[in-house]
Amino acid sequence: MSATLNEKNPYDVALENFEMAADALELDTNIREMIRNPERILTVGLPVRLDDGRIRRFEGFRVQHNTSRGPAKGGIRYHPGVTLDEVKALASWMTWKCAVVNIPFGGGKGGVTCNPKEMSLAEIERLTRRYTSAILPLIGPSQDIPAPDVYTNPQIMAWIMDTYSMTKGYPIPGVVTGKPISLGGSLGRNEATGHGVFNTIESACAHLRMQMKGAKVAVQGFGNAGSVAAHLLDSHQAYVIAVSDSRGCIYNKDGLDIPKLMVYKEQTGAVSGFPASEPISPEQLLSLACDILIPAALENAIHGENAGTVKAKIIAEAANGPLTPEADRILENKGAFIIPDILCNAGGVTVSYFEWVQDEQHLFWEAQDVYNRLERVMKTSFNEVVNIHVERKVSMRTAANMLGVSRVAEATKLRGLYP
Ligand code: NAD
Questions:
Q1: CA gap 217, 381 in Å, rounded
Q2: Nearest atom within ligand 1 for CA of residue 348
Q3: What is the C-alpha to C-alpha distance for residues 233 and 296, in angstroms, rounded to an integer?
Q4: pLDDT by residue (tens digit) across 4-51?
Q5: How far apart are the C-alpha atoms of 144 and 149, rounded to whole Å?
Q6: Most ligand 1 atoms within 8 A of CB, residue of 227, 228, 262, 345 to mutate
Q7: Radius of gyration of the chain (CA)
Q8: Is-contact 215 291, C-beta < 8 A?
Q9: Based on CB atoms within 10 Å of each CB, which residue in 117, 267, 281, 339 is the most buried?
Q10: Does residue 250 sit in helix, strand or coil?
Q11: Residue 69: pLDDT band by 50, 70, 90 thresholds?
Q12: What is the pTM of this model?
């Protein structure tokens, strides 16, 4: 979605949202100057041998946006649409997100412009190891800790951990999160983002005095975040009536069988063709008469030209940056309740933090322990954001940004500036 006609440069969107929050906070111009832009940007060229013997050069990035509150934290994306500005935007959202959920990390992000769907597993491994070597000066358990993002997964995190550890001579699991359990991953990490999305939707329903039971849900992007959120909503008696992936959208007015759909997607690689469903267009999915819409794919999915058709009461941003500022304004005016990305999808980084803590302590927690702690963090953060939204009469997005920016600003001020 990084290449839609309605695209706004995601970094411009990030800066626009930052300025809105900074204005509402009446933030000092010197502090703004210190926290607005990234601290470090690394662009790397990655020559990789393809299976047919040719060498292809890929381009990769790692951005550390802000480390006032702790080491940089943020995922790595493999996607043909990855650009430096996208990575900068995602890194800045990580800064505010870690502060919103009050975990001791700053914001970072990485990406490689590539199409993993057209690459073999061996090519992806060689690319990952080369990328890890290239960003070695930046990463480390006390410096900058990557994690999965779009089209990266626990296996890729395992290769990153291995490549980094080889340079030290001993295993260092805390360099990356979202690892397989057998390499120091945390129980619940894979499902964490979807769980957090679900926790915030539960809180939103309570805040709006709306029943989750019987609510109709549409999910754009039935991947890690979207499918887990859909599954939890389904198991709490909501009806997930439509879902999509990059290849198609499906609909059933009585609700799709989500557990079976998860197996079907796993087996076939797509949602299209699922029994007891009919195909619909991406535009139809967004404009369905439903209570909850979960954009869980990529940026700019809902923009000035399609926002007017959205009918959902709650929009839960599982994806990062799925609404353009214009879409925000249109939906706010329509009275939709938006759970902004830096709150809604913060479950992933929260359990990444739990994973890092467990790795550093060599002491591992039970899954229920992880989910209980996660729920506490998500619900506390939701309440803090809603309080600002109500008291200051600002949008939920501005409220979340105000909470994140104020915490980063305070840390920056307290640390001061080297003369
Ligand atoms: P994923 O790769 O598991 O899933 C992405 C899904 O979106 C796939 O099913 C893909 O087919 C689908 N998709 C891609 N383009 C689409 C399109 N045009 N229309 C409909 N569907 C499309 O990725 P993910 O980890 O679930 O990430 C999804 C979003 O959530 C991203 O914005 C990511 O930054 C955000 N996010 C993920 C995590 C996490 O821990 N996984 C944490 C925070 C935020």
A1: 23
A2: 40
A3: 14
A4: 445 678 999 899 999 999 999 999 999 999 999 999 999 999 999 999
A5: 15
A6: 345
A7: 20
A8: yes
A9: 339
A10: strand
A11: very high
A12: 0.94
* Per-residue pLDDT tens over the stretch 103-135: 999 999 999 999 999 999 999 999 999 999 999
CA atoms within 13 A on the CB side of 10: 27
Choice from 7, 90, 150, 370 to test ligand 1 binding pocket (greatest atom count within 8 A of CB): 150
pLDDT tens figures, 302-344: 999 999 999 999 999 999 889 998 999 999 999 999 999 999 9
DSSP state of 185: P
Joined tokens for residue 220: 């754009």
Pocket of ligand 1, beta carbon within 6 A: 1, 148-151, 193, 220-226, 244-246, 282, 296-298, 318-320, 345, 348
Per-residue b or e along 197-213, where b marks 16 or more CB atoms closer than 10 Å to that residue's CB: bbbbbbbbbebeeeebe
* Cα 201 to Cα 292: distance, rounded to the nearest angstrom: 8
97 belongs to the catalytic site: no
Residue closest by Cα to atom 19 of ligand 1? 246
Over residues 182-204, the mean pLDDT reads 96
Q: Which residues of 93-125 are buried (b: 16+ CB within 10 A; e: fewer)?
A: bbbbbbbbbbbebbbbbbbbbbebeebeeebbb
pLDDT at 404 over 70: yes
Residue 143: count other Cβ atoms within 10 Å of its Cβ: 14
Taking CA atoms, 95 is separated from 202, 348, 391, in Å, by 25, 14, 24
Going through 180-286 in order, the beta strands assigned E by DSSP cover 216-220, 239-245, 248-251, 278-280
Report DSSP letters for 263-298, one per residue: HHHHHHSSSTT-SS-EEE-HHHHHTSS-SEEEE-S-
Taking every pair of Cα atoms in the chain, the longest distance, rounded to a whole number of angstroms, is 67
pLDDT band at 419 (very low <50, low <70, confident <90, very high): low
